Structure to design on (315 residues):
């Protein structure tokens, strides 16, 4: 008996073209949303890390800097600091180290606009803004009765007859930089000065105390009268005929992070000590998180006493 084979149609299932296009669009939308969340998260983490780096530099490095500068004029019997004070706490001229023949004034306190004789490692005014940076040089003697350490970590023996001289300045932290915007840090170079004015171990490249900085500015607070202070840059103070005593130091810094931001969203200009500093730019520049900070330091060893005499009329 012959069986007849019947052709039974098979049902084939699958995605239509429209369904595939819908699935593709949905997949792209979900991927885009995930990438957006990832980018926002990464950007937030980068900003937080950069802000943390700047905050660490401000809290720790700036506090250490303030403590060092407060030592200025320690051990000096003369409490009125001018550019003529022997072993004065703020070093402006050779008179302050009792060595008028020391001509390398690029190692002393200087500000933008001054013309000085410069050594290999002395002040150059380098900064990452349109305004040159300053330099602050201080001096003190260890009369505390215990060992101390200078800003480079060298021991200052208790009872040492030498004066400690320290200068704070901006220099490059990476060799052979060719870009307009350079990696800069705030350095401190420490040396010694004898009572006779002989300088040793000074004028070196120093140690970096703030690793990422774009600007360092200094103003000298002078006691112009009984009730007020006038803040002057070193180049203006040096031109005064009657130089008032220096009692405070005002510092301004622009500190940046070590971690670059993902987008060019940070500021390009900062107000520092009442002056607008505009950052330099170049095609290879990476944007960093930056903040400007100012601090005023009272020189506790440079008190100026004023005596006011009142006339009393008898009846």
């Amino acid at each position: 008996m012959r069986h007849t084979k019947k052709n039974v149609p098979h049902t084939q299932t699958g995605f239509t073209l429209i369904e595939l296009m819908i699935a593709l669009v949905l997949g792209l939308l979900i991927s885009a949303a995930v990438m957006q969340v990832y980018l926002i998260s990464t950007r937030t983490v980068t900003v937080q890390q950069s802000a943390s780096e700047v905050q660490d530099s401000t809290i720790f490095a700036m506090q250490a800097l303030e403590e060092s500068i407060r030592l200025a004029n320690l051990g000096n019997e003369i409490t009125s600091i001018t550019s003529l004070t022997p072993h004065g706490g703020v070093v402006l001229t050779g008179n302050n180290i009792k060595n008028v023949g020391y001509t390398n004034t690029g190692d002393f306190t200087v500000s933008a606009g001054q013309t000085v004789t410069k050594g290999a490692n002395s002040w150059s005014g380098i900064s990452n803004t349109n305004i040159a940076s300053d330099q602050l040089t201080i001096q003190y003697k260890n009369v505390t009765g215990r060992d101390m350490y200078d800003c480079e970590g060298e021991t200052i023996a208790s009872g040492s007859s030498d004066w400690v001289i320290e200068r704070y300045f901006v220099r490059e932290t990476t060799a052979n930089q060719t870009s307009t915007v350079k990696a800069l840090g705030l350095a401190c170079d420490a040396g010694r000065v004898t009572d006779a004015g002989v300088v040793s171990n000074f004028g070196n490249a120093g140690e970096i105390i703030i690793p990422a900085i774009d600007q360092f500015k200094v103003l000298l607070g002078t006691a112009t009268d009984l009730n007020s202070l006038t803040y002057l840059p070193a180049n203006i103070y040096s031109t005064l005929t009657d130089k008032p005593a220096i009692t405070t130091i005002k510092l301004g810094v622009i500190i940046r992070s070590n971690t670059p931001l993902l987008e060019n969203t940070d500021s390009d200009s900062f107000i520092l000590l009442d002056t607008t500093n505009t950052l330099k730019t170049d095609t290879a520049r990476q944007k960093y998180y930056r903040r400007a900070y100012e601090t005023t330091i009272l020189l506790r060893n440079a008190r100026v006493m004023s005596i006011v005499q009142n006339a009393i009329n008898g009846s």
About this structure: Residues 144 and 315 are 52 Å apart (CA to CA).
